[in-house]
Automatic annotation (TrEMBL):
EC number in record: 2.3.1.46
Site (described: Important for substrate specificity): S192
EC class (word): transferase
InterPro entries recorded: Class_I_gatase-like, HST_MetA, MetA_family
Family per similarity comment: Belongs to the MetA family.
Alphabetized CDD domains for the sequence: GATase1_HTS
Gene name of the record: metA
Marked site positions, Important for acyl-CoA specificity: A111
Catalytic activity: L-homoserine + succinyl-CoA = O-succinyl-L-homoserine + CoA
Protein name per its UniProtKB record: Homoserine O-succinyltransferase
UniProt-listed Gene3D superfamilies: 3.40.50.880
Amino acid sequence: MPICIPSELPAQSVLNEENIFVMDGKRASAQDIRPLEVGILNLMPNKIETEVQILRLLSNTPLQINIDLIRIDEQVPKNTPKAHMDAFYHVFDDVAGKKYDGLIVTGAPLAHLPYEDVKYWNKITTIMDWARRHVQSTLFLCWAAHAAVYHFFGITRQLREEKLSGVYPHYADDPFNELTRGFDDTFYAPHSRYGDIPVATYNDVPDLHVLGASKEAGAYLIGSNDKRMVFITGHPEYDPDTLHQEYVRDVKAGISPAIPQHYYVDNDPQKGFNVTWRSHGTLLFTNWLNYYVYQVTPYDLNALTPPSTEG
């Protein structure tokens, strides 16, 4: 949340130069407060596990948030009971007339499939375009991040021969950006992906800025200049054992995966794992909700307008 200080206090100009959000008493007294409306488009097969992971990160804020769980269509996923989907999820077409303060689009297990071969590609691009008109800020995770960058900017990911898997050290490229506010000089985040887009490729797009990256894992956190889109190529939402479960699954499938890097104690799967990313993940989602959603979204969502670049 912002700090409220007298408008003439000298500290205000210093804080403004550091891009720290401050509010004077007049603006604070005029604020109206209402719950935030946030949608979660869940593309993962195990819906319940992903729901818990994301909702945990959204819950660490004093803001009241109303959540809509959204599905592409009425097809029943293999790893989630139909009763759960029917009880808790909205089909996208049923909420397409609604506007949201924030939208989160999860990853999907579509690592090697060309985008146009994804069975719901036309639908997902329709939703991405819809979000530009109906959502204040959209956060894309992992596969969805690369898919959205491809759709909006024509940037094609490069596929690695071996999956990038592990918990990697990162640095904040712009420590004064609101999204990285409070990050340590080195912070950690899990990655589990085959796709890569170089940092320089993102930064060559005038509307994009890499805010966090890793020397080993590459670009991690990318934001649009207007705060309307955030792309996260890793998994700050992962539970402590998620990478382990993926590794065991791949071993059983005969894929012969590499051991996730910087994850197991002494690099030994029998010794347990180091959990080094959860505080960062919580802070990242809190910053997104506060600075990219709450502080800029209109009180009346009907007043939400498309980005200026779209007219």
